[in-house]
Amino acid sequence: MMYDDIAEQGVVVQYHNGPNVYEGVPKNYTGGSVTSENFLQVLQGQNIGVGSAKVIASGPNDRIFVFSGHGGPGFLQFPNGRDRLFAKKFIGVIKKMHKDKKYAKMVVYVEACYAGSMFRGRHLKDLNLYATTAANASEYSYSLWPGMVKGVPLGNVYSVNWMEHSEKSNLMVTTVSDQYNEVRRKTKGSRVTQYGDSSMGKLYLSEFQGRKNPRQDTVKKGPCKPIPNWNVHIAILDEKILNAKDASVKKSLQQKRKQTLENRDFFERKIAEIATFIAAEKKDKAKSLLTSEKDVINFDCYEAALRHFEDRCFSLSANPYALHHLRVLVNACESGFQMRDITSAIDSACTHPTIRGIV
Question: Per the UniProt entry, what is one GO biological process (predicted)?
């Protein structure tokens, strides 16, 4: 399952001058079929009638490996509009699968900002589930930089690290814990974190990722550094400005960069206003709403607040930068504020016309 929107003339590379890793990749579900509901149905072995119709028809002796990327506090973001898979629903499905004996062991890797919020405090140990995340519940994940081809970063630090480790390792003798420890050591910027049944770390990677011969590197890679995912767009513009030969092109890029920063500043002011209105002008409470790192427990409140925020303020799909500033809604819900206080604050702050393209 992949959205399939990154290949250029049938080519995807992981690093400069690297091999084409796109050729021969099975594409069971692409584009509009990449939805949270389809994902959950495939995971549970339920026929969905789209794409290749392949599903995971697993049983009590099977081991399942899941990798997913992109999200926000308490949810995984799918490509189509407001399609999100919240932690409560995801873990609920896994609990049902465990009860129905749909797997023996499950390993989940998540590459996303706040990825740890999908698992922290979710009572996972009795589910035969082990998860690692690119970041803990309160921090961003990072992309590799420069690591670019045609102005696009080629990967996230965590994802590149675990995939390269799998490619170079003998999976028959390398354990899940070996990979976690190596990826944690190599991932800079965010803290790779593990959740669930840590005793599963002694299992071999081949039980989840298959068996193959280790690959030897033949291409020398240049140095890369981590950059927060929220800052990738600015870094891309900076590189384009630096390399622009035409004065008019450079000026246009500089103006685009300036507008991007102004849009971000406007968005952050609105978030601060929402916090102030929720807190009834009490500065200490408003500051706490903006800075606290509470776990998402009250999903009914959070999902309702997020829907109202999108209706009245900013669409997350049209303004990706907003994904990195939803903590105020989590904190409001977990601090005991009533939904009417939250929606009223959103209504009071967001009187502006519809805005798109805040990245």
Answer: vacuolar protein processing
